[in-house]
Amino acid sequence: MGDYRFVRSGPGAQVAGTGMIIAVDGPAASGKGTIARALAAHYDLPHLDTGLLYRAVGMAVLEAGGDPASPEDALHAAEHLSSALDVPGLKSEAAGKAASLVSVHPDVRAALLDRQKRFANQSGGAVLDGRDIGTVIAPHADAKLFVTASAEVRAERRYAELRKMGLDIHLDAVLHDIRARDERDSARSTAPLKRADDAALLDTSELGIEAAIAAAIALVEQRPFSAAND
Ligand code: DC
């Protein structure tokens, strides 16, 4: 593949050869994580899956026997979060649900803010994926993608993953959980799941993994984005 190293021009120009900040947001099971990892590999940038931070907080609350819906329990866990994000079980549905519950609390979001901003602003650039990267963590990102897919397609993907893991689960239940998570993540008052005005929309409903990655790279190459991209 060609050399896509980013060279910024105009006001605030960076030195040629330094990296860019790429923000990838979107709902659960939209493919944003896969796309973010692929962009990081393609542009040789470090990557942070910010959902893991909220998942780690949610798991810590559950393990302490607390309630993820309690602001006090969730803040205590966020303030004592270890730097390691390779805890077993973080990718489970239980951790995802707990993450969605703790992420509603403004104090929890504030406690995790600095770590994410430092990652985004490290010299050399970075790719971050989550819900509020383009709107809150890195509103100055060089490229912003909002990755989405229909709730039905996302539920089918998640269902296939869970079946592969040997879980006995119904598609209807997965779809119900996806819709509940969308609703909670979008309706919260602090940093809700929302497409930034200057984010390019990437709908992966009809795309396989390779096509979605190719489309994401094409969009990054095409920046700055405009509504005409929709
Ligand atoms: O991306 P994920 O499914 O691993 O995220 C789990 C939950 O964490 C998600 O439902 C909402 C929350 N989250 C958030 O509020 N902000 C982020 N930047 C990332 C995740």
Describe the structure in your own words.
- By secondary structure, the chain is of the alpha/beta class.
- The protein folds into two domains: 1-46 and 122-224, P-loop containing nucleotide triphosphate hydrolases (Rossmann fold), CATH 3.40.50; 51-117, no CATH class.
- 47% of the residues lie in helices and 10% in strands.
- The protein contains nine helices and five strands.
- Helix 1 (32-43) packs across helix 9, helix 3 runs parallel beside helix 5 (106-120) and helix 7 crosses helix 8.
- The longest helix is centred in the C-terminal third of the chain and has 17 residues, at 171-187.
- The chain starts with 20 loop residues before the first strand and ends in an 8-residue tail after the last helix.
- The model is unreliable at 1-18 (pLDDT under 50).
- Residues 28, 50-51, 54-55, 96, 99-100, 103, 130-132, 181, 185 line the site of 2'-deoxycytidine-5'-monophosphate.
- The site of 2'-deoxycytidine-5'-monophosphate has 14 residues, from helix 2, helix 4 and helix 8.
Secondary structure layout:
Layout lengths: L20 E5 L6 H12 L3 E3 L1 H13 L7 H9 L13 H10 L3 H15 L5 E5 L2 H5 L5 E6 L2 H14 L6 H17 L12 E4 L5 H14 L8
Parallel strand pairs: 1-3, 1-4, 2-3, 4-5
Helix pairs in contact: 1-9, 2-3, 2-4, 3-5, 7-8
Bound molecules: 2'-deoxycytidine-5'-monophosphate.
CATH class of the largest domain: Alpha Beta
Bound molecules: 2'-deoxycytidine-5'-monophosphate
SSE string, helices as H and strands as E? EHEHHHHEHEHHEH
CATH evolutionary superfamily of the largest domain: P-loop containing nucleotide triphosphate hydrolases
Q: Rg from C-alpha positions?
A: 18 Å
Largest sheet: 5 strands, parallel
Q: What's the total count of β strands?
A: 5
The average pLDDT value, as a whole number, equals 88
